[in-house]
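Progress note, project year one: complex with glutamine.
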Amino acid sequence: MKKILALLAAAALVATTFAFAGCEKKVEDADANVDGEAVEGEGEDKEAVEGEENAATEDEKEEEKEEEKEVAEDDGKLVMATNAYFQPYEYFEGDKIVGIDVEIAEAIAEKLGLELVIDDMEFNSIIAAVQSGAADMGVAGMTVTEERLESVDFSYSYANGVQSIIVAEGSAITTVDDLYAEGADYQVGVQLATTGDIYSTDDFGEENVTRYSNGSEAVLALQGGDIDCVIIDNEPAKALVAANEGLVILETSYADEDYAICVKKGNTELLDKINVAIEELTAEGKIEEIVAKYIK
Ligand code: GLN
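Model obtained:
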């Protein structure tokens, strides 16, 4: 009995301390009435007593806990959202999706002790899939942009990208500058929601940009004369030009960018693991080896 009482007394003391800490915090935070309300924040204010940590840190901890749960719930699988029409990064070989991103993702999954699962979808759906948790990461030759950083977090970059311009042989467009020339009124074809789309819409206006769901469709439209050029990442551009008659890539490029893997915003646990894996794979020469296999 005595023991219980002693415990209760200790508990009361702790509660008082918390309440006091609570008062301090409330006053500090919001000039609120210190009575009543402050005591409600009891659990939360334990941090203030222990380590003078603020509410933001507390929120971060909560998020971390949720992330741990998410990773654990993934059942040993690492789900990669991609759009498999982006050769040589991700594309179908028969009914199998292969490519640079696939092999890098496989190498990362192996380091994490997880099984890679590929979920092929529209490029435009990848960020939403990562945000909703339907996929753990987006690996899709995806360029890091300020705007995307508002929706997802990005890993270290594992490759550089270049936005190239594909035209029909003999086109009036011979350099990137022609697109900006006084009185120029060209129709630019792009893949929906890619940086090619975002940048050219900015530069040439909505009315001068036609969006397709992938590069092949854009190139078909170019061959059909519906549009004057296609702005797309350089490696897919090379593959498209090789597979289609009468097209060339301009020597001058449109933009330089960095490719990285995206994860759900705040999923630092997974992001850190991916970053460590990328660092290791780079040091081991593995990324270079994978890239060399696909880009001669
Ligand atoms: N690098 C471009 C982007 O991030 C295109 C990527 C893609 O089409 N898979 O928007």
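Residues 83, 86, 123, 140-143, 161, 191, 194-195, 233 surround glutamine (CB under 6 Å).
The first helix runs from residue 2 to 30.
No further modelling is planned for this target in the current period.
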